[in-house]
Amino acid sequence: MGDFNAILSFADKQSPCTKGKRCSLFGGFVDSCELQDLVFSGLAFTWQRGGTFVRLDRALENDAWMTSFPQALVSHLPYVKSDHRPILLSTRPDLNMDKGRPFIFLTGWTKHNNCSTFVKDKWTFASNMADSLNKFTTYVKDWNKDVYGFLGSHKRQLMRELNNIEKALERIDSSFLARKQMEVRDELKNVLNHEDLL
Question: Which superkingdom, per the lineage (predicted)?
Answer without folding.
Answer: Eukaryota
